[in-house]
Design brief:
The complex is a heterodimer.
Chain A lengths: L7 E8 L9 E8 L4 E5 L6 H8 L7 E6 L2 E2 L5 H7 E4 L11 H11 L4 H14 L4 H4 L9 H13 L5 E5 L7 H18 L2 E6 L2 H7 L2 E6 L2 E6 L1 H6 L4 H22 L8
Parallel strand pairs in A: 3-8, 3-9, 6-7, 7-8
Antiparallel strand pairs in A: 1-2, 1-4, 4-5, 9-10
Chain B lengths: L2 H41 L1 H15 L3 H11 L6 H25 L3 H9 L4 H31 L12 H10 L2 H30 L3 H19 L1 H4 L4 H18 L11 E7 L2 H16 L3 E8 L1 H9 L5 E5 H8 L8 H16 L2 E9 L2 E6 H7 L15 E4 L1 H5 L1 H9 L6 E4 L2 H10 L4 E5 L4 H4 L2 E3 L11 E6 L7 H7 L8 H12 L5 H8 L3
Parallel strand pairs in B: 1-2, 6-7, 6-8
Antiparallel strand pairs in B: 3-10, 4-10, 5-8, 5-9
Helix pairs in contact in B: 1-2, 1-4, 1-6, 1-9, 2-4, 3-4, 4-6, 5-6, 6-8, 7-8, 8-9, 12-23, 22-23
The chains are: A alpha/beta, B alpha/beta.
Chain lengths: ~270, ~525
Amino acid sequence: MNMDVPAIELVALTKCFRNAKKPAVDSVNLSVAQGEVLAIVGGSGSGKTTTLKMINRLIEPTSGSVRVMGEDVTNRDPVILRRSIGYAFQGVGLFPHMTVGQNVGVTLRLLSQSGECVSKRVDELLTMVELPADEYRDRLPAELSGGQQQRVGFARALASKPRAILMDEPFGALDPITRDGLQQEFRSLQKKLQLSVVLVTHDMSEAVLLSDRVAVMHEGEVAQVGSPRELLTNPVNDYVAQLIDTPRRHSDFIESLMRMAPGEGTQ
Amino acid sequence: MTPKLQLLFEQLPDLLGGHLTLAVPAIFIGVLISVPLGILCVKSATVRGPVMSLVSLVQTIPSIALLAIMVALLGGTIGYWPAFIALLVYSILPIIRNTIVGLESVDPAMREAAKAVGMRPLQQLLLVELPLALPVILAGIRTATVWVVGIATLSTPVGAPSLGNYIFSGLQLRDWQRVIFGCIATMTLSLVLDQLIAVIEKSIQSRRRVSLVLATCALASLVGIGLAPGLVTPDSAGFANLLGQREGAEEANDLVESTMTLDGQVIRIGAKGFTEQFILAEVLRERIRKVGGTPEVLTNMGSTIVFDALAKNTIDIYIDYTGTLWSTVLKELDPINRISMRAVVAGRLFDEFGIVVVGSLGFENTYALVTKRETVARYGLSQIGDITPAARDLRIGGDPEFFGRPEWQRVRQLYSLGDITEVGMDSTFMYQAVADGQVDVAAGFSTDGRIDAFDLAVLKDPKQAFPPYDAVILLSPEASKNKNLVHAIEPLVNRISVTAMRTANRLVDEGGETPKEAAGQLLPD
């Protein structure tokens, strides 16, 4: 495979919703190299989720194009396209009437793999996300904790061995400790499998910790793209500066707390 | 167990079978129609508008009227099909509505998730949307089941046997045990079906395959019983045929004078829904059995329904009254005398419908305004015209059919009774009501045994406002070609006097005897 071809490439991608005054996504150009994690960061209404959903054609663009591994997605059957790209949802999105095993294997069954093949792969995936298959395979999602559900969500996204994964606020609903653990595991899994990932988040700290590059979106446009370091050292405008400054302010504040004498911080 | 209760239980297999045959396939096919239609409504707004308005509109038609309309729409066909179609129509609304609500209450995020993992639209529907909507859809099916099983009791008047036979005949015979028996049987059936579906629902949710399979099997076997009426009606087809032939053969040996026999032919006897008709149906049944036929009796049929059924050859024979035929079938307004009416009715029924009037039974069952002796004394009543001055203060009880009939319009006009208050009630209650003084006058029937039983006075009708109501035997166009049947029936002509009929009616209404027993005493040969 040609490693020079970007895994995902967005060219002048635009989406105007009906009855909207301005485009939700306005000529966005972005590319994700193979094995790279790109975070899209922005506030609500910045167009980041719309951009993500246009990649696997959950939303059809008004103009511009999306290329996955060099091929324009408009030439592909959207259903086949979606089966080849992993998707991890905001709020997990597991099917409540299916067992953990059925949820993980759903895409594989849609690809009409044999039952034996599917159950072998499901066990493999559950082991990979550290849920012992024998214990969890036949449970219903409602019987799992939030963190466990998110692991099942990852396993499902990885089921068809996709080269690219789309993630929409995947850690949003988790408590901080669970989130931290899962984020670490995600990063190591991503490195191991050389996954190309687009991660949508509103949390700049998460973007800085998990991604190779960050794209900041504001009012439908990409304000700046670069490594976290580039954004920190050279923000193009006040909005980017303010956004990228938040993790640093947090860490500075925590550091100052650590330096204080006991009792001082409570005043 | 009392003999009476035993009799009720003996009828249960037939009537329960009839009820299941109607209700279960109606619900089953209702599901097959409504769920896809509901899905279509969710997917397309252009389908949804018209479908939902039509279905909701149909639902507002009173069920008994819908059944009657079905008979008319099917060109006068009575029996299974009009009842089945009406029940089917009734099952649709709750299922379709719940299918729509169930599908629309599926979390949009689930729909998007289904799309994102690579499902095609049909897969989204089958693998995600329908399973998630299932509890709501099943609740709709349960509602439909309870409705349909209840409404199926109303198929009795259109000639489809059901557990309603207990209720309708019980009301007419004033046999409360029978009515309650019918109600309990219907309720039990409702509950059993409802619970079976509930078990299916629970086992789907808790993923218990065994109970799912068991409940589905139980339901399927009920559907099977419903679809194979031969299994539960031993009275039909071969078995009864055999019996009929054997009895017929014995009869041929006994009665040397008569060589004709019906050879086990099925003769369908119709009857309207009151005591006298039940007794006369038994008289006909006995007569036909005596000559080797296989009688089948359909009771509790509506007045016009039974006539239409005869004209269509759906039934072979029933007893009607000349005055009724005169006004409701021939649409004549002014009555003529008894003999002429009989001749004109016979001629015109044959010319216009091919129906043959075999002859009169020998008695008249006319409308009679009755009142209690105290009222007679207080207002000095002897004939209908004496009511006129006090009409404003008086109430007249009668069945709702009576107040809609041209005869009543005529009586009201001829005797100037425009001010009297009409109180509609089932004819079962009206004699009691007049005896208790709840109404002052009742529109009774001259052969009704309860006139004597409650010691009521019959008001004279000097202006002959009520037409004559000779009881006549009618044969369908097809049946009238059956010479043996005509010969078998002829001996009944002029055999029953008005006092004999009144006595027989009283035996049933007050004496607690069955119509069959009363029929035996009416014609003891």
